[in-house]
């Protein structure tokens, strides 16, 4: 069996690792000009399903390394005012496994074949029910991925094409053109700041919501048991992980009527924090500007199923959620593990391929739609006026 995966995000890479471990040929095509063309190093909270999914997709020999680069976390989910006084609670305490997205992505890249600067422009379903994707390359010079091998893009027929290419999925545009992203109108600025002793006093705010005048600031700590680079050198020398230290991930959610237009990300945040606690302002002032960005909150709601065939979708390409649900990465990793299991069953002759894909899609549509619904249900608590 040969599987082509469009998109080198967490879901696509987890699927590729899981198939590779089962002896199934899988190649990844990424439209970015290089693996590190965009910064993707934010803190994620994985629930038990998401963490077990990524663990099951990885080779067992890397499990000790995975366990070393994550942390268990719990948060009371308080509501605080800009002076850090408690106003209430968001709900029950949240627990999970905290991981840095950039670190996890580098682990998932190890040993994979990744074709960068490969933008999918269409595909053909051939008479024998295989699929031939077509890619366009615009920039012949690309940065080498961590642990992977970059090769020229050569269209080749595959038994299955998986669109794991995000909210603007080119695969979805062909497979299910009626399924389009919905803009909630909400914008948020996300960034990170080194976790120094100066910010020890903010510990009660980690995992909580700080409610200002029409805006919400969210903070989360990323602390490593062992620095990722050092952990890889000790436990899996064939893996190269980023050399980063502990940090605070922060995000400020802006209502639809308050989207910045001409400010840098930290400036956009500070302009809405007049009179806030000095430690909160210092946190933003000391943020790494290269790792801060203004983003929109858009969702993709899975609707009608497409006709069965050798093409399917995974992750944000079919069920992009609002970050207020905390379930985007978890659902994409769940997809990867479920599709991995289905394809292994087909490869071993326990299921035909289209039946295996149909079984995956039937389950994925159900829990994916629920993930989107749940994330939107939580959005008004952070951004009143969102278009739902």
UniProtKB/TrEMBL annotation:
Keywords: FAD, Flavoprotein, Monooxygenase, Oxidoreductase. One of its GO terms (molecular function) is monooxygenase activity. Pfam families: FAD_binding_3. Residues 303-362 form the FAD-binding domain. It comes from the Bacteria. Gene3D superfamilies: FAD/NAD(P)-binding domain. This is FAD-dependent monooxygenase. It comes from Kribbella karoonensis.
């Amino acid at each position: 069996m040969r599987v082509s995966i469009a998109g080198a995000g967490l879901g696509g890479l987890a699927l590729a690792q899981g198939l590779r471990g089962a002896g199934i040929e899988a190649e990844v095509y990424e439209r970015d000009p290089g693996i590190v063309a965009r910064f993707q190093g934010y803190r994620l909270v994985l629930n038990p399903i998401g963490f077990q999914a990524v663990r099951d997709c990885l080779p067992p020999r890397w499990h000790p390394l995975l366990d070393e680069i994550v942390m268990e976390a719990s948060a009371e989910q308080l509501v605080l005012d800009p002076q850090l006084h408690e106003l209430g609670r968001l709900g029950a305490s949240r627990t999970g496994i905290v991981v840095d997205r950039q670190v996890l992505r580098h682990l998932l890249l190890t040993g994979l074949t990744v074709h960068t600067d490969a933008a999918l422009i269409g595909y053909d379903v051939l008479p024998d029910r295989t699929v031939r994707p077509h890619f366009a390359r615009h920039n012949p010079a690309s940065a080498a991925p961590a642990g992977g091998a970059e090769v020229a893009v050569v269209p080749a027929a595959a038994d299955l094409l998986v669109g794991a290419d995000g909210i603007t999925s080119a695969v979805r545009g062909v497979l299910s053109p009626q399924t389009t992203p919905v803009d909630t109108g909400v914008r948020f600025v996300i960034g990170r700041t080194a976790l120094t002793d100066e910010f020890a006093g903010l510990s009660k705010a980690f995992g909580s919501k700080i409610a200002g005048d029409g805006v919400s600031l969210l903070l989360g700590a990323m602390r490593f048991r062992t620095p990722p680079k050092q952990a890889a050198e000790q436990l899996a020398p064939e893996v190269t992980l980023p050399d980063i230290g502990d940090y605070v991930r922060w995000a400020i959610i802006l209502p639809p009527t308050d989207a910045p237009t001409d400010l840098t990300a930290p400036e956009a945040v500070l302009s809405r924090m007049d009179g806030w606690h000095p430690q909160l302002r210092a946190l933003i002032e000391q943020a790494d500007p290269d790792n801060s960005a203004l983003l929109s909150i858009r969702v993709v709601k899975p609707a009608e199923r497409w006709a069965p065939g050798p093409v399917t979708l995974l992750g944000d390409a079919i069920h992009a959620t609002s970050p207020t649900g905390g379930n985007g990465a978890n659902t994409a990793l769940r997809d990867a593990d479920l599709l991995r299991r289905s394809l292994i069953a087909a490869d071993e002759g326990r299921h035909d391929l289209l039946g295996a894909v149909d079984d995956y899609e039937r389950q994925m549509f159900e829990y994916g739609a629920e993930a989107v619904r749940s994330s939107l249900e939580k959005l008004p608590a952070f951004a009143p006026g969102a278009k739902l």
